[in-house]
Amino acid sequence: MILVNEPLFLGNEKAYLNQCIDTNWVSSDGPFVKKFEEMFAAYLGVKHAIAVSNGTVAIELAIAALDLQPGDEVILPAHTIISCPMGIIRRGAVPVLVDVDSETWNLDVNQVESKITPRTKAIMPVHIFGQSCDMQPILALSQKYGLYIIEDAAEAHGAEYNGQKCGSMGHIATFSFYANKIVTTGEGGMVVTNDDVIAERARSYRNLCFQPQQRFLHEELGYNFRLTNLQAALGVAQMENIEKLIAIKQEQGANYTSRLQDTPGIQLQKVEPYAKHVYWVFGLLLDDAVPFDAFDWAKQLLAKGVQTRPFFWPIHEQPVFHKMDLFKEESYPVASKLARRGLYVPSGMGLKTEDLEKVCVIVKETLSVYAA
Ligand SMILES: *Cc1c(COP(=O)(O)O)cnc(C)c1O
């Protein structure tokens, strides 16, 4: 079986973990947390990085740090993970959806302006599968209407838009270090910003809104979203190798592209000239002419020893939101199609080249009947 994801630890991970045990620093107070934050901020070229327990709470923390109020609207793509609308809803704000582009699978920037109302406070571009959204038009709307930009860069460590790193362009950005992400701490996340006030609020909310003057006196309700020193130890070791990790993903992406780009029956994610794509995962979209859907296809591939994952199920089709009377009559056809026709092939950091080659042969086998 070729697994959809296997991580890779090629540096000081073990040594730094041992250091945590040897020094008794296992909580979030340990020195690796600060080091990890400093390395991450320096890598992105931003002023503040705030380590948190995962990429999901990073989004909720970002919404809290921007001080969004109940009823404030945040525009985001329909093709994303539940974490995005969840963080908005948990703070009482309102998610407003737009469809994604049929070729890049990223937020369709042409659909954003018509969704802006007097209550709109932010836009949340999600850099899908390791490729930046088209940020220039998004930043222009931010300027024109005075909106915050919250980048969800959970899948885009090291990705760039016209030479600028994903996560460094908005007012605030979030990252995930889940085991299948480009940098991993097992579970973990980061909130980054250049704004001192936003950073201070994020740090306070992360840590129960303890006050420096009188620790156990609270003016606001915060969270415990802290990352442990053990997790940060992995993060520091991973950041020491970040360029190597990104090079591995880019080589995988190039290899998959050259082997699969002319395969009849599938479409690959379009790579835009503005993007340094870091290929978090390698997605494939079935053409309409292929008579099976992605779920059938995944079963065929699994029977031949290739594990895959479907794309995100779209936000407007989530039963949990229909129960909340959200998005019921709304339609985002591209996001709906991606959910039914798309899957991604093994893309882990630890994927061997010979396994990648096998995956390509098997993908082609399943589609050969449809070749002209
Ligand atoms: C992985 C991911 C998250 C959530 O991160 P976790 O660490 O798993 O909570 C958020 N947004 C996107 C786009 C992701 O891919």
UniProtKB/TrEMBL annotation:
Residues with the modification N6-(pyridoxal phosphate)lysine, per the entry, are K181
The record's keywords, sorted A to Z, are: Aminotransferase, Pyridoxal phosphate, Transferase
Pathway assigned in UniProt: Bacterial outer membrane biogenesis; LPS O-antigen biosynthesis
- State the needed cofactors, names only: pyridoxal 5'-phosphate
Give a single Pfam family match.
DegT_DnrJ_EryC1
The EC number on file is: 2.6.1.102
Q: What CDD domains does the record point to?
A: AHBA_syn (cd00616)
Asked if the record carries the keyword 4Fe-4S, the reply is no
Which GO terms of the molecular function aspect are on file? Answer: GDP-4-dehydro-6-deoxy-D-mannose-4-aminotransferase activity; pyridoxal phosphate binding
Catalytic-site annotation from UniProt: K181 (proton acceptor)
Q: Which family does it belong to?
A: Belongs to the DegT/DnrJ/EryC1 family.
| Protein name per Swiss-Prot or TrEMBL | GDP-perosamine synthase
